[in-house]
Amino acid sequence: MKNILTILSQHIEHALYKAYPELTTAGHITSDVTQSKSNNFGHYQCNAPLRLSKLLNQQPRTIAEQIVKHLELVIDGEQALSKVELAGPGFINIFLDKNYISSRVNIMLKDTHLGIDFPEQPLTIVVDFSSPNVAKEMHVGHLRSTIIGDSLARTFEFLGHNVLRLNHIGDWGTSFGMLIAYMKEHATEVLTGTKKTDLTELVSWYKLSKKQFDEDLLFKKQAQEEVVKLQSGDLEALAAWEIICEISRKAYQHIYDLLAIKLIERGESFYNQLLPGIITDLESKQLITVSQGARCIFLDGFVGRDGEALPIMVQKSDGGYNYATTDLAAIRHRITIEKADRIIYVTDAGQSMHFAMIGAAAEKAGYLDKQKVTVDHVGFGLVLGADGKKFKTRSGETEKLIDLLTTAIDHAQKIVEEKNPNLSKEE
Length: 427
What we know:
Blueprint: H1 4-19, E1 33-35, E2 44-46, H2 48-56, H3 60-69, E3 74-75, E4 78-79, E5 81-87, E6 91-96, H4 98-110, E7 124-128, H5 142-159, E8 162-167, H6 174-186, H7 188-192, H8 199-215, H9 217-231, H10 235-259, E9 264-265, H11 268-272, H12 275-284, E10 289-291, E11 294-303, E12 309-315, H13 323-336, E13 342-348, H14 352-365, E14 374-380, H15 401-419
Parallel strand pairs: 7-8, 7-13, 8-9, 13-14
Antiparallel strand pairs: 1-2, 2-6, 3-4, 5-6, 10-11, 11-12
Helix pairs in contact: 1-3, 2-3, 6-8, 6-9, 8-9, 9-10, 13-14
């Protein structure tokens, strides 16, 4: 069932073409139907006469009169419009018949899909949301991305599109070298599988490993060696990494189960093997500029405070990769392999510039054709700490999301018990 706005738009376009047949050769003419802001102006308004005045070389009011003259109150055999009025210089106020509104509402009430038509060609939509970092607790800042992303995914799924819910977790990089090196010395039983642990203990080890990394040069070297082993596919390092990921995954899943969130894990590690190919491809297209030893893409339209063009770094001077490289690999994979028609990133507004630059770089590299694929960044405000400042997530001192949720559940249960003392525990 088409929605009323679509039906009215098509109905008025039909009247417009009847009044002015010459418009049939002018390309598609939109009817400019919008919902009225005041009941005095009807349910809907048509503003097309004002826009068509120059094209038709007539006064807007004259055009409006001709549209109304050819506009029938009956649509598809139903009395849809109760009246149509001219207003101002050329506005058309449209009043719906009450019985027509009633019949539409009844259709929606009886239809499990609320009377909404399924798309003839469903889109493949990638929604990238939640995205916690392995070996760290999900903090309260993750709640917005998780809920907004899930809401978007549910909406598109309901509308009949194919939705790929991706959890782009941070599961690769230097921090794992630090943690593996520390656990080899202080938590060997966990790495050998003879002892179980949880995310809380893992986070405490991460903090201690970070402190030792910053203060102990020998440990720093050991950690860097573990990173090299991990990146080169050393089996022992990969086994340790998988144990760390699984501990984190279990904790995150508990939260997702509480919130009824479904996600497919597709972390940074998934794209790691694709990164060298990204650099090779960018170089073959002569898009790479070496700046202070780092490989960069310079983009038009992105300028820093000093007026200089802002680059997007894809490979550091030491040969390492960063978020930008991974995100370029991800957008290329989502478009070429997963055949995405639309990609939606749900992160805080502070990352708007990053995703704008990723989109521009992907377009420049030929990975993204904006005529075929839509890319959106759904930003939201930062969640601040008690001090009013942005969370320093790397510190590990942020408010835990699981604590927020369990506290909310406890408070809700107390309210239910106070207001309903006769309910059984099961109820």
